[in-house]
Automatic annotation (TrEMBL):
It is found in: Cytoplasm. Pathway: Isoprenoid biosynthesis; isopentenyl diphosphate biosynthesis via mevalonate pathway; isopentenyl diphosphate from (R)-mevalonate: step 1/3. Its EC number is 2.7.1.36. Residues 303-363 form the GHMP kinase C-terminal domain. Belongs to the GHMP kinase family. Mevalonate kinase subfamily. Residues 119-157 form the GHMP kinase N-terminal domain. Keywords: ATP-binding, Cytoplasm, Kinase, Lipid biosynthesis, Lipid metabolism, Magnesium, Metal-binding, Nucleotide-binding, Steroid biosynthesis, Steroid metabolism, Sterol biosynthesis, Sterol metabolism, Transferase. NCBIfam families: mevalon_kin. One of its GO terms (biological process) is sterol biosynthetic process. This is Mevalonate kinase. One of its GO terms (cellular component) is cytosol. The keyword Membrane does not apply.
Amino acid sequence: MISNQDSIIQVSAPGKIILFGEHAVVLEKTAIASALSLRTTVTFTPNTNNTLLLDFPDLPGFGIREWSLDEFKKLDHFPNDVDLLKPIECNELFQKELNKIIDIKGIHTFLFLFCALTKCNKAYNIKITSDLPIGAGLGSSASFCVSICAGLLKAFDTYICGGCKQCVDNGIVIDQQKQQQQFCDEQLNLINLWSLQGEKIMHGTPSGIDNAVATFGKALTFTRKNGYKILDKGIPPLRILITNTKVSRSTKTLVEGVIQRSKLFPTLIDPVSNLIDTISTQCIESFNQYHTDKDNDKLQQTMDLMFDMNQHLLSGCYGVGHSSIDTIVSITKSLGFHTKLTGAGGGGCVITLLKQDTTLDQLSSLKSTLSSNGFESWEATIGDPGVLINIFPIQK
Ligand SMILES: Nc1ncnc2c1ncn2[C@@H]1O[C@H](COP(=O)(O)OP(=O)(O)O)[C@@H](O)[C@H]1O
Ligand SMILES: C[C@@](O)(CCOP(=O)(O)O)CC(=O)O
Ligand SMILES: [Mg+2]
């Protein structure tokens, strides 16, 4: 059998949209998210130079960089004694040491996961590409962390299930043509927990919803207390248009701002968070109702109202709106559609609820109005699978 250490490993994980509950989910409330068909792909190719070569074309100004593995191993706080089956946070002192090597949070995240999971015992060229816009609310950071963790655990044959048939052998083939495989649930849980440690370096206080949806895929509800729950019957056939404001923002700063506001003004912010929680739970109820009565009009009416309410609470009460988002809300409203931000807000992407019977002409008129205002939009495909893996033998 060819060892994984002598193979090319390719892993992909999806981005996501949050339908309801972003930010409130950090404050312990319920949120609902669905995986997107847009994915981040990581390719691990062994090298014989004792180096780590990173090729990150989507990270502005990064390009390709290479370090000797010894450069990391010699650091005083190198995570030597980590148990791979028990994910832990990055030691602050190690992060400070990484910061002296390179001052980019996303790269600290990568380097922490790489050092903790491989102990720098294997040299790799690693390429990461994404279909997702980076830093725009569609969960690129989580799909980045999930793909890295899944690939590195596989590279070292680290399985919390002990190496079940699904994880070690042929697995469940999701896509015959691409021969992509899925891990077992136990291994997915391990990947999810390691990815959360990565997200913590990027964001400080991630709720965990983004890495859960990038790991498990489909559509799920999430609370920090109870974790994720896959919506067994899926999401009703909603049509969603994603529009990118192209305004860049920092998830970390926005999340910190909302936490700060809720600490300073608990009597004002708690009821807002509770109302968002009610919107999320009402959404689940409406989905269940739809699965019974298939009443599209009723679902559309409720969802339209909840899109408006959630948007205004995020913008007016949590303070994570942006004038570009307001512009899209008003353009879409003038054409009869309801829009909310998705992810951290402050710019990034927004989602508009189309109707089941929105015609191609109506859609293209909506898209061209948005485009003439400088915004790019596309209809989303949601409910996609979570993290998937391919192994290729190296061609000699
Ligand atoms: N394909 C990628 N290549 C390199 N870094 C990435 C990639 N995707 C995500 N990242 C990291 O994630 C960060 C963006 O995460 P974040 O601000 O949470 O936005 P979002 O998750 O909404 O896209 C980037 O600044 C970068 O550090
Ligand atoms: C704002 C938040 O709810 C989602 C952030 O998503 P994104 O990184 O902006 O894609 C934060 C979180 O849940 O960790
Ligand atoms: Mg993110």
